[in-house]
Design brief:
Elements lengths: L1 H14 L1 H20 L10 H31 L2 H6 L5 H29 L8 H25 L2 H18 L11 H7 L3 H13 L7 H21 L4
Helix pairs in contact: 1-5, 2-3, 2-5, 3-5, 3-6, 3-7, 3-9, 6-9, 6-10, 9-10
Length: about 240
């Protein structure tokens, strides 16, 4: 039952034009545009080496947070969650199915983004296990707060808030704009954001060959625990 529901969730995302734009097309366009042009000063080295980890972090945020918050919020509004709760699929199974669907969509995103980045001349380094751990921690952090938003706000408010957060974190989260461009105090605060921690952690591994970037992992773990705990406490199914 969980696998069937997860497969349905994946198909729903891939068939939704707006969701597909958010989760796949925008990250690929940003990666291609800023890698192929000099619109931004990204420091020394190949531009794609800086951009690819940040775009991977953006893809995780777009699926685990923005897309999941909006989709779940409208399912809650239209009574879909209430009806699913009355089926043999338990509520815990529904959450598990949603988690599996998020991971499956992220896997598709990662394959496409990495393929485009490699075609643009990307040369990744580091341990794949560390990359996977960072992505899972980032997924947990964003999923927790996405479900918290979907389970506490009205669907229209979730739509507006999730898109606003997406745009703000894209602008100041170190995804395509280097955090070094910000003043010291501001930069220190921005490094505590989950998307900043994920992007910088992935750069530490994929660009610099670090083994386990401790600070980004701690930041993501704190966000993950806080988000999932708050979602478990305050999420309303109806």
């Amino acid at each position: 039952m969980i696998l069937s529901q997860a497969a349905y969730e994946v198909r729903a995302v891939l068939r939704n034009g707006e969701q597909l734009l958010l989760t796949l097309i925008i990250p690929v366009v940003l990666l291609t545009l800023f890698s192929a042009t000099s619109l931004l000063d990204l420091g020394p080295g190949d531009r794609v080496d800086f951009l690819a980890p940040g775009v991977l972090a953006l893809a995780v945020m777009s699926t685990a947070f923005t897309g999941q918050a909006i989709g779940t919020g409208f399912e809650r509004r239209y009574g879909v969650l209430k009806r699913l709760g009355a089926t043999p699929l338990p509520r815990g199974g529904l959450i598990a199915a949603k988690t599996l669907s998020v991971v499956a969509v992220e896997a598709v995103q990662a394959v496409v983004i990495c393929a485009v980045a490699l075609a643009l001349g990307w040369h990744p380094h580091g341990d794949p296990g560390s990359v996977l751990l960072l992505l899972l921690l980032g997924t947990a952090a964003f999923s927790g707060f996405g479900l918290l938003m979907a389970g506490t706000l009205r669907a229209e408010a979730t739509l507006a808030a999730a898109n606003l957060v997406y745009i703000l974190l894209l602008a100041v989260g170190g995804v395509v704009f280097p955090l070094d461009e910000f003043p010291g105090g501001v930069r220190d605060a921005l490094e505590l954001l989950p998307v900043s921690a994920l992007a910088e952690g992935l750069r530490d591994v994929l660009q610099d060959g670090a083994a386990l970037p401790g600070t980004p992992m701690i930041v993501l773990a704190v966000w993950a625990v806080a988000g999932l705990a708050l979602a478990a406490k305050f999420f309303k199914w109806e």
